[in-house]
Write the structure tokens for this entry.
Amino acid sequence: MPAPERYAVIGHPISHSLSPRIHTLFAAQTGRALRYEAIDVLPEQLAMAVRAFFAGGGRGLNVTLPHKQAVLGLLSRCSEAASHARAVNTLWSDAEGALVGDNTDGIGLVRDLQQNLGVPVAARRLLLLGAGGAARGVLGPLLALAPRELVIANRDVARAEVLAAVAHDAGSIPVRAIALSALGQDTPPGQSGTAGFDLILNATSTSLSNELPPLSPRLFGPGAVCYDLAYALHETSFVRWARHHGASAAHDGLGMLVEQAAEAFHLWHGVRPDTAPVLAALRSQTQ
């Protein structure tokens, strides 16, 4: 019997990662023999660790914080999604040994919103909190669903303006950048408001430290849904805030994690696993 193929996720820190559990469940479901591990890699070790992994027979890597942008410099080529996001979360080596990268975060978010949660995006007002790598990774797929408007809010408004400019170049959906401190404030007549959103997505890193960006309940439109791209063993601070202040629904990013992993699995193995039982199994462990 051949040895199991080797896969891994790299990041720092990484001990909390659910990716080994997810890919092990996918492998069992699809009859694949693989070994998937979590590897803690410091930023200064990134290039050496990636090259050593593939030189040692590794078949595929997932990449998480803080390496998603830095790993771009190690690639021979990358997908259009990764190029637009300027971030990569899935790596593999092609038949010639060249390193290839993709970004499956955006498709993971969209599948969770649409297929798992039934959250409508078309013709809705969206607020995206944050303008870092996580926001970049999901921006294009969100705009592809044709929202009425998307507002990007960030502490450093200049970073939000850069991201909004990228979005303007890519399509016709109205995209604006504002400072986080301006959210929920009164808006002059004739200008689009900074309150009353249908879907609010938290792409900041605040939930990872159990913190919150400055937010107002005035952000909620009727039936507003909140979504945190982060996940935790218990409610994230953003999900807790949303439920406490009357959001119609609030979800963490566990479904996004499973769906982006399924897309990575498909890229590596050519088969798409069924995410529903895997997500149910993880939910039973985190509640």
